[in-house]
Amino acid sequence: MFASALRQSLTDGSLFDTLPRNLIAGITVGIVALPLSMGLAIASGVPPQHGLYTAIVGGIVVALLGGSRVNISGPTAAFVVVLLPVVQQFGLGGLLMAGLMAGLITIGFGLLKLGRLIQIIPYPVIVGFTSGIGTVIAFLQMKDFLGLQPEPGGTHFLQQLGALAAALPSFRWQEFAIGALTLGMLILWKKAPGRIPAYLVALLVGSLAAAVFNGNADLPDVDTIASRFRFSLGGVEGSGIPPVAPHFLLPWQLPGPDGTPIGFSWELLRALIGPAFSIALLGALESLLCAVVADGMSGQQHDPDGELVGQGMGNIAVAFFGGIPVTAAIARTATNVRSGGSTPLSAVVHGLFVLLAMLLLAPWLSLIPMAAMAAVLLVVAWNMSEAGHALHILRRAPRADAAVLLTCFALTVAIDMQVAVAAGLALASVLFIRRVTELTQTTLITPHEEAEHQQAKGVVLYDLDGPLFFGAAYKALKIVTAVDRDVHTVVLDMRDVAVLDATAMENLEAIARHLAGRHTTLYLIHVQPTLVKKMRRYGLLDATTPTRLARDYRAVLSQLSSA
Questions:
Q1: Helix or strand holding residue 383 (H, E)
Q2: Distance from the CA of 51 to the CA of which of 45, 160, 365, 434 falls in 20 to 30 A?
Q3: 3-state secondary structure labels for all residues of 155-200
Q4: Contact 67, 286 (CB under 8 A)
Q5: What is the pTM of this model?
Q6: How many angstroms from the chain centroid is the CA of residue 521?
């Protein structure tokens, strides 16, 4: 489980045999990850360097300790709607503490072998989340894309939307021009042949345009990373991105919402447990979905539980190096596979490339205009929203699935991600229970279907088909209580029952006692050995209970004839 992808690559020799291809793939992904890491950090409410720290530390640690050979990890858009409220309420220190707790929870998911269970969350739930997240991210970018100056203080999406609407009179045409130019380049360049990433070209064009505005006294200034963010390095104040590598620090010594160290307390941990669980669940879900997509593209197989442990270790590591929560990113992973990446080495190279770029290019990266970063995030939001898939489900899928999608979407947008996560899990469970319940049936075997049945008067035989658990037991078994008065023996054929829980056994005992009150005996036949053990342990087959066990239908007839 631990570092399974790296161990597999060493065992089969691919780690060194494919070295040139993975070096090229890592550099290519690093070029894509550089602007995305900064933009997603800004969207999450923290300075851009914290996104770069995440790509560097998280990308390398998860690659070395995870269960997927080709996943590329870093900051992702899925986290924005969870992280932004945490930053607003608890500051940078609280965000890193939440990420640390999420890492521990994710490791727990992996050790409990929940990897494959997380992968089976219904598709409408996932699309509802992603569409809602994409919508929120897109609207939040309007502030920088249009150059608005909204009043601070709103923590929920609807409050922030109202603040944006109220700030429309502060519209700055120069910011919109830079954003529109960058957005246009992103769209057009993706249609052009060539291997140069569209993000790189679009940001370069946007930055050159911003330099024209800021370098001409006759034109209005354009907001850039350097004008928006400041840092303190060794007592020296600077603007933009600090040209230093991530270094070890304690998350609880970083500032809270009031600018002072947030400290460590049980009250803080209790307040952060909800966001931490949301981060862990979203990170686990996105990482495993990303790994599944990567498997289909690369022809390899990932270890889901090993990937969860690696993601958890990555989140713990980034928290001690100033990084925001980390998870696998589908866009960067797809770029990695298409560029020839096939081992964890490409992800390590990607992290080292981002580190080198941060050390050498920090002054130039600081000149990127905020409107251009907003344009990049608008494209990310559109890709994440999966609008085509969402509309297809709403038009073609069963009504229950469409309702689930709309519910998850509405909760994500109108309330917050924690409520949406809880509701999504509940809806996923209800959908599963409902559909399994529909599969579980009890059928009366008529005389022409069972020749032996004709030889016994007052005996009825029912065939149970499907799992018997709390969602299906009552529905499946209630038909048994409706037998005629002249029936003295009811036989349940359980050869097709593989699951039996306490609710089902309680229902079986209640039915047996109900039938015994009418002088009717309940027999269970063809019961699987594992279920017999469960029944005996539960006390369902004790001598004091009216339920009887027989090998098959002939054995029941034999017992009746000898009675």
A1: helix 370-385
A2: 160
A3: CCHHHHHHHHHHCHHHCCHHHHHHHHHHHHHHHHHHHCCCCCCHHH
A4: no
A5: 0.79
A6: 50
